Structures are given as structure tokens and as C-alpha cells.
Amino acid sequence: MKRISLLHRHLQWRNLTVTALQRTPEIDRTIASIQSISSNPCFSLLGICKTVSSLRKIHALLVVHGLSEDLLCETKLVSLYGSFGHVECARLMFDRIRNPDLYSWKVMIRWYFLNDSYSEIVQFYNTRLRKCLNEYDNVVFSIVLKACSELRETDEGRKLHCQIVKVGSPDSFVLTGLVDMYAKCREVEDSRRVFDEILDRNVVCWTSMIVGYVQNDCLKEGLVLFNRMREGLVEGNQYTLGSLVTACTKLGALHQGKWVHGYVIKSGFDLNSFLVTPLLDLYFKCGDIRDAFSVFDELSTIDLVSWTAMIVGYAQRGYPREALKLFTDERWKDLLPNTVTTSSVLSACAQTGSLNMGRSVHCLGIKLGSEDATFENALVDMYAKCHMIGDARYVFETVFDKDVIAWNSIISGYTQNGYAYEALELFDQMRSDSVYPDAITLVSVLSACASVGAYRVGSSLHGYAIKAGLLSGSVYVGTALLNFYAKCGDAESARVIFDEMGEKNTITWSAMIGGYGIQGDCSRSLELFGDMLKEKLEPNEVIFTTILSACSHSGMLGEGWRYFNTMCQVYNFVPSMKHYACMVDLLARAGRLEEALDFIEKIPIQPDVSLLGAFLHGCRLHSRFDLGEVAVRRMLELHPDKACYYVLMSNLYASEGRWSQANQVMELMKQRGLAKLPGWSLVDIETSNDFSPLIVASHP
């Protein structure tokens, strides 16, 4: 009551002041409203409510004393329940109002909006508010338009557009909301038509249309519209410029992006999160890592957004060590990482095989409560790539709602770690859980099928890829399918896939060339390699390995040397062990064993068992066991603890019929505590099951 008394005194003073002025109808209505509020004791009581508990107590008190059925009091209660986040209670209170006025309606819809209850906004407007809205109100229209934008409700948005036109001439504020709504619903042409109707365009109107173009991948149109905006002497804001940088990034237009960056500096904009993130994204995705670091280094204040953007850029562009270094830098120890940060750091750990760091980030994520789907999928990927497939499976099993990304992570992990059969079982379980595979799923499963020769399963996936439209829309699916057929010995089907692919990358050509190489069809491998060079594509190291292997199996010694020299001298590749092994095999098969042994001694890297095995194969072919024995003894001197070299020497003696020496070598290996790992093979047999069981046969 003390507060009401003070309010009365204040109003008396105001009345005296107003009396001295010229009275108008507007002033009279304002005074009447204030007097109505001051005469209502509910407002003072409700004004002291600081919690929902106190609000409920006072609400109950007002009901008991019959003071709650005043329109202003009821509207205040609706507002207070909404402010405490109890929107359902606010709606129950609103529904008790017998004759709500426009202000009451606006209070209710506002709290729906502030709590992101977009579906309720549209329903509330359609079922209740639209019937009693007989005048233009930009607040109501703007809120409902925003709800339609977020829900991507094109039809509801069009109905509201009609209502806006029917009620009266809309202002630029509402028209801008229409521009945004149509753009977010991917109706860019309608968005542009509304934009052209706005006569007095401010920076918000222009920016909404530019952002709409960029979000709908009409990138060049967005840049052109920005030029028109400048011609109209309207300066862009940070949202305008951030969208322009994003457009340049998607176009790969580094030069234009740098111009926008210069415009930002010239205009004096501070580099906040709306500008830093797209700028870093631009430089990283366009391969300009130095300028990305310069932008980051010149920031006056490093916040979580810019720090995370830098880590994400490093991790995604193949600089995982820099990402980890930035994450562990003591200068930013006070920044608490979010889910995006930790997920990107886990990706960097996966790329570098940093298991201990990955485990630490796992613990940090649990401590920070960032165990969402993105973080969990990154954990599965990290553990799988660090060859801890058991830990990856454990994390996967703890995921409550497994989406296609989660399944892809674990299936890919099993495939990459050589557990192809388990990968196929997981794929079967994924289908049983009604999760539909995408392009990434098919690539992993086809790789598993190729490694175990599961021809029927792979062929079924071929049919699914065609039916789901994944084959025509993804070069990766086409390449994986081609590789599957090639490794299963069906080079003709692989070639059909290859010829039907609209887009081909270097890996696609490599897979097809390798497919012919597996079949020993060297002429077609070399012919396809020539076709690839005509397409102005740069060959990679894998293609040269395939070509050299094909030359070796076909006995094309001169061609093999020519391609080896081309690889080193023209394309500046540093030969790997696989390339050297191919050359040794080429020379050994051709009977040039002394030349092959001299080649082995001159290579700049330490020979391994694959290279020596290629040489010994030639020795057996040409009955030069003396040279083979010399080579093996040298390797045993260098690697006395490697069982594989003892096995090679034993096999060499056995192939010559020198069984006593072969047994002596095996006994020596046992005395030194060495053991040969058994070999194994997989055979796909026909059954009536969805997936053929794989019969594993061990070989001593």
C-alpha cells in the first residue's frame, strides 16, 4: 500500500503538470491508463515477484480475494509466467481471460517468440489471433513471419502475406520479414519480388536479400546486389559483409574475398565473430593458411569463437599438429572449449594418431558436459583411427540415439582396421534399426566387400545406390563401386561403371587402371593411363605403383624403366618402398638379377621384406639360389629379430630341395623366440542369408 500511495502522489503531480499544458485525446487516454494501473493493487504485489514460486503464491492470494479477474492484472500474470519460462502456465492464464485486448494477445505471442516456440506461434495466430486482428500491427506480423521462417512453412507464410496485403499497406520492417521468410523457405524469386516492392530500402532490407541469395547458393547474384547497394549509397553492416565473404568462399574467389576483407578494414569494422569466422573459413578453404593465421594473430581479443574457428580450419585443411598446438597453447588456457572445439581437436588427434591426447580430450568433454552426438561421433572416429577399435565400439554402444553419422563412424572404423566381416555385420544391424545408409555408408561397406570378396553383397549395394540416386550424385560412391568390381575380378563391370561416371577424379582413374593391373591386362592399363594424361589430370603415386606392377607382370622392362624415370624426373615424386619393390620385381622376373641386387644396394632407404621377397621370387624363377642366399643373409644381419626373413630363407632352401638347411633356419628362429604369424584367407559361399558367411582358412 505504501507503493500505491507513492504512485498516487506522483500522479497528482503529473496531473497538475498536464493541466497546465494543452490537453489532447492521446494525453487523456495515457492519463486514464496510468490511473487505472495506479488504482489496481495487483501491480504492486506482482511487481515484487522474483521467482515463479512467489508468483504462484501471490496469484493464489489474488484469486482468493477475487482480484485476479481484472484485464490488466490477468495480462500482467501472463507476462510474468512467460518471463519465468513457464509458457504453458502463461497460456493457461491467457485462456482464462474473457475478453483479451490486442495488448494481451501481443504479450502472449511475444513470450512464445522469446522461448522459440515457433509451432505454437503459428497455431496461436491461426486459431485465435487472426480472427480478431482487424488492424495492421507490425509486431504481430513480424513475429509470425519469423516463426514461418524458422519452420520453413512456405504455405503458412504465403497465407500471412495475403493477410498483410489485405489489412493494409505494410512498412519496410514487415516487408523485410517477408523477404527473409521466402529466402529461408528457398523461394528466392518470391523473395526478390517482395524486395523490389520496398521503396525505402535500408541496410537491413539489402542485407536480408543478400543473405537470402548466399544461403540459397545464388552467390553471384548476391555479389551483384551488393554492388547495387553501394550504388544506392547504402553502406553494408557486419552481417552484409560476413555473407559476402561466405559467398566468396563458396565460389573459391580468394581475390574477391580479399577485396571484401580490405573493405572491412577501410570501413573501420571491428573483427567480431560475425566477420572473423567467415574470413578464417575463406582463407583456409582457399588454401591461404598464412593469411588465415595473420587474421587470427592481429585480433585484439581472442574469444572462444575465433579460437575455435582457427582450430577447425587447421583440422579440416590437413594441419592437425597446428590445431593441437593451438589448443594446448597456454595463452588461451582460460577459454573453455565447446563441442565444436573438442570435436575438431579429436579429429586432429585421429589424423596424427595422438591417442593420449584424444583420451585427455575425451575426459575434458565429459567434465564440460559436451557429450552430444557430434562429440561422440568424433570420439568413435578418433579411437578407430588410433586402432583402438574396442574403445570405439564401447563409445558407439553408449550413444542413445544413433543416427547415420554414428553408424558411418563405426562401420568405417572397422573397415579401416581390417575387420571387414564385422563391418558388414554392423551394416546389417544398421538396416535392422531402420537407419538408411547414405553415400558415406556405401563407400565404407563397398570397401569391406572388396577386401573379402563379398560379391553378392556388393552387387546388392550397387542396386541400392542406383535406386537411391547415390551413384549418379557422388564420385566417391562410383569410385568405391568400381574398385569393388575390380578387386572381385569383374573388370568389365568396373569399366561400365567407369564409363558411366560423369565426374572422375584421380582416385577414380587410379582404381580403374589398378583393376586392369590386377587382371594382368597391362596394355589396357597403359592405354587408360594415356587417356588420363590427355584429360590433363596429374597422376598420383598409387597410379605409378599400378603401372609399374603391370609392366612387371607383363615383362615390359623398357616401359617400366621409362615410367619410373617419368615419375621421378617429370612429376618429382620421391619413390616409396612399393615403387622400389615393383622395379626389383620387374628386373628379377626379366632375369636381370645382378642388376636387381645392385639396385637394392643403391636405393636410399632400408629395404624391407616386400622388396626382398620380390627379388627372391626372381631367384627361384631363374634358379639363382646363390644370389638369393646372399641377399637374405644380409637382411638377417641387419634384422636378426624379424621372423619374416628367417621364413624367406627357409622357403628359399626348401624350393631348392635343401630340407636340412631349411629346418636348421626354422630351429634357429624358434631358439631366438620368434614366431611366424599364420596366414588366412576368406571365401564367400552361397547361402540364403542376407550376408554370406565367410569361411576362414588358416595357413601355416
Automatic annotation (TrEMBL):
Keywords: Repeat. InterPro entries: E_motif, PPR_At4g14850-like_plant, PPR_rpt, TPR-like_helical_dom_sf. One of its GO terms (molecular function) is RNA binding. This is Pentatricopeptide repeat-containing protein. It comes from Vitis vinifera. PPR repeats lie at residues 171-205, 303-337, 403-437, 505-539. Pfam families: E_motif (PF20431), PPR (PF01535), PPR_2 (PF13041). It comes from the Eukaryota. Belongs to the PPR family. PCMP-E subfamily. GO terms for biological process: RNA modification. NCBIfam families: PPR. Gene3D superfamilies: Tetratricopeptide repeat domain.
